Amino acid sequence: MVAEWITPLAASGSAALVAAVATDAWQSARDGVVGLFGRAGRRRQELAEGWLDEDAATLAEAPPGERERLRGQVAPVWQVRLTDLLAEFPDAREEFRAWADQTRAALPAVDQSWVQNNIAGRDNYVVGHGSQVFYGAGGHRPDA
C-alpha cells in the first residue's frame, strides 16, 4: 500500500518537472530527478536520464499550443514513475520535497502553474493530477 503522502507529492513533483522543460530551470530539475533515481541504482538512473531527455525534446520541439496538450500526457507518466520511486524509497521524502519546491520556485511565473483538462468516457478516464472518483451509470459506486 502506498502511503497517503506519496501520491500528492509525486503529482506536485511531476507538475514542476514538466513545467521546467524548455525553461532556465530545466537542467537543475533534470539533475535533481536523476539524482533521486540514483537511489535505485545506476540502471534506473540511466533509464530516468533517457526518459527525461526524450520527454524534454518532445515538449521543447512542440508548438506552444501542442506543448500544453503534451504536458497533460507526460505529467501523469512522471507522476507514476515518481510515485513508484517514493514508495520504494520513502526516506527520500524531504529531499524530493525540497527538489520540487526549488524547481517550482525557479520557474518563470507563467510556468508555475498550468491547466490540465481530464477526459472521461464511458469505459475509461484519464487523470493527471489529484484523484478522481468515477461512479457508474446512475451515480452509484460500482464496488458498493
Keywords, separated by commas or semicolons:
144 residues, mainly alpha, globular
Short description:
The protein has 144 residues and is mostly helical. It has helices at residues 6-20, 26-37, 42-61, 64-88, 93-106.
- Uncertain runs: 112-117, 129-144
Q: How many whole angstroms does the radius of gyration measure?
A: 16 Å
Query: How many angstroms does the end-to-end distance come to?
Result: 21 Å
Helical content band: 55-70%
Please state the average pLDDT score.
82
Biggest pleated sheet: none
Percent strand: under 5%
Number of helical elements: 5
- Strand-pairing-aware structural class: mainly alpha
- Strand-and-helix sequence, N→C? HHHHH
Q: Which assembly state applies to the chains in this document?
A: single chain
Taken from the alpha-carbon principal axes, the silhouette is globular
Count the strands?
0
Characterise this structure.
It contains five helices and no strands. 60% of the residues lie in helices and 0% in strands. With 144 residues, the chain is mostly helical.
